[in-house]
Design a protein that fits this description.
By secondary structure, the protein is an alpha+beta fold. 48% of the residues lie in helices and 14% in strands. The chain has helices at residues 48-53, 61-65, 72-87, 93-121, 127-147, 169-192, 195-201, 209-214, 219-224, 231-234, 255-279, 331-336, 339-343, 348-358, 362-365; strands at residues 8-15, 23-30, 33-40, 156-157, 160-161, 298-306, 309-317, 325-329. The strands form 3 sheets. Strands 1-2-3 form a 3-stranded antiparallel sheet. The chain has a 3-stranded antiparallel sheet with strand order 6-7-8. It has a two-stranded antiparallel ribbon with strand order 4-5.
C-alpha cells in the first residue's frame, strides 16, 4: 500500500548548522525525504567589498584575513598577487618560498578542521576532531612564530612578507614535517574504514562530474567528483611549477570521496613544504615598494588554489590610493550552489553529512 503524506516545510537555522558562520536552509519534505531546498544567505553580510573600496590597498590586506578565517595566509597571498600584478612588482625568491610554505601549512590546517568537523557531523563526537586539532595547534604555533598572530595573520605584503622566519621556525617546522605523515596515517586508520563512516558517506550526496563542472565547483568538491583540476598545476602561479606533487581525485563524487581527497591533499602538502624547505634560498623577503600605493588605472583577476578551491581577487584601479572595485571569487560560495542537487532525494539525517562534506566558511560567502 502506498502511503500518501502531505509535504511540509521546515527551517534548518538560521544558526550554526555544521559550519562556520550563520546559514539557513528551508527544506520541503515528503516524510523524511528532502524534495526541495532553498538556501538563504546574508546573515553574516558585512559589506566587505564596499568597505574595501573606501580603504587604501594596504589596509585591505587584514580584510582578507576575515574572509575564510581558516585560510588567512592563502587569502593574503591571493590579494597581494592581484595588487602586485597591477604594480608590476617582482617578488624576491625567498619570499616566494616562504609564501608557499605558509600556504601549504594553511591548507593542512584548514583540511584538519574541515575533516574533524565533518566527522563530528556524522556522529563521532569530538574525539577525531581533537586528534586533528592536536596537529592544527602546531601549525598555529608556527604561524604565531612568524607574525605573532594565531588566527588573522596579516602576514603577506605587496612584494613579499612582513617578517623573515625566526631562528626557531625551521627546526620546529622540520619536526612537524617528520611527524605529520604518521599522524595522517593514524587518522586514516581511525576513521577511513570505520563502519559508521562508510555507511553514512559512501554513495551519499553524489555530485556528478558534469554537474560539478557546470556549477563551477572547485577544490576538493570538484576533485572529489573526478575532475583533476588544480590551479597549482593547471595554471601555475608563484613557484609551484618547481615542486613535485600529485592531485588526488575521487571516482564517485560522493561524501566519502570529498573526505578522502582532503586526506590525500594533506600528504601532498607535506611533500610540497619539504621540497620548499630544502630549496629555501637566502635573500630579501620583500621588494622595494612605496608605502603609499597608487596602481595605474587598469584591472586584474588573480586566483590561487585555496584550501576550498579557486580563490580569486578582481581588482579595478583608477590611479588613486583606493581600489575602484574589489571583488572576491570565494570557493565556499560557489561550492554551495550545488548543495540543492546534492541533497534532493536524501533524508534529513543525511543533510549534515552532505553539507559538512562541502566544508564552507560563511565569512567568505556573506562578504
Amino acid at each position: 500500500m502506498t502511503l500518501k503524506t502531505e509535504h511540509y516545510v521546515i527551517n534548518v537555522g538560521p544558526q550554526h548548522p555544521s559550519t562556520h558562520g550563520v546559514f539557513r536552509l528551508r527544506l520541503t519534505l515528503d516524510g523524511e525525504v528532502i524534495i526541495d531546498v532553498e538556501p538563504i544567505f546574508g546573515y553574516l553580510h558585512r559589506g566587505m567589498e564596499k568597505i574595501a573600496e573606501g580603504r587604501n590597498y594596504t589596509k585591505n590586506i587584514p580584510l582578507t584575513d576575515r574572509l575564510d578565517y581558516l585560510t588567512s595566509m592563502i587569502n593574503n597571498q591571493a590579494y597581494c598577487m592581484a595588487v602586485e600584478d597591477l604594480l608590476k612588482i617582482e617578488v624576491p625568491e625567498r619570499a616566494q618560498y616562504i609564501r608557499v610554505i605558509m600556504a601549504e601549512l594553511q591548507r593542512i590546517g584548514s583540511h584538519l578542521a574541515g575533516i574533524g568537523f565533518f566527522i563530528n557531523d556524522i556522529g563521532a563526537f569530538m574525539t577525531p576532531l581533537l586528534y586533528m586539532f592536536r596537529e592544527r595547534e602546531k601549525i598555529v604555533e608556527l604561524f604565531d612564530m612568524v607574525c605573532g598572530q594565531r588566527l588573522n595573520y596579516n602576514y603577506m605584503r605587496f612584494g613579499g612578507v612582513s617578517m623573515d622566519l625566526p631562528d626557531e621556525f625551521l627546526p620546529a617546522l622540520k619536526k612537524f614535517l617528520d611527524e605529520m605523515p604518521g599522524f595522517i596515517d593514524e587518522y586514516d586508520k581511525l576513521v577511513s574504514t570505520n563502519e559508521i563512516m562508510l555507511v553514512r558517506s559512501k554513495g551519499v550526496g553524489i555530485l556528478p562530474r558534469e554537474l560539478a563542472i557546470n556549477a563551477s565547483a572547485a577544490g576538493p568538491v570538484l576533485r572529489g567528483s573526478g575532475v583533476k583540476w588544480d590551479l597549482r598545476k593547471d595554471q601555475p602561479y608563484s613557484i609551484y611549477d618547481r615542486f613535485d606533487f600529485d592531485i588526488p581525485v575521487g571516482t564517485v563524487g560522493d561524501t566519502y570521496d570529498r573526505y578522502m581527497v582532503r586526506m590525500e591533499e594533506m600528504r601532498q602538502s607535506v611533500r610540497i613544504v619539504k621540497q620548499a624547505v630544502d630549496q629555501l634560498p637566502q635573500g630579501e623577503i620583500i621588494a622595494k615598494v612605496s608605502k603609499i600605493i597608487r596602481p595605474p588605472a587598469g584591472e586584474t583577476y588573480n586566483a590561487v588554489e585555496g584550501a576550498k578551491g579557486e580563490l580569486g581577487f578582481y581588482v579595478v584601479a583608477d590611479g588613486t590610493e583606493n581600489p575602484y572595485r574589489w571583488h572576491v571569487r570565494a570557493p565556499s560560495y560557489i561550492n554551495l550552489t550545488a548543495l540543492r542537487e546534492m541533497l534532493l532525494g536524501w533524508k534529513v539525517a543525511d543533510l549534515m553529512a552532505i553539507f559538512g562534506s562541502i566544508d564552507i566558511v560563511m565569512g567568505e560567502v556573506d562578504r
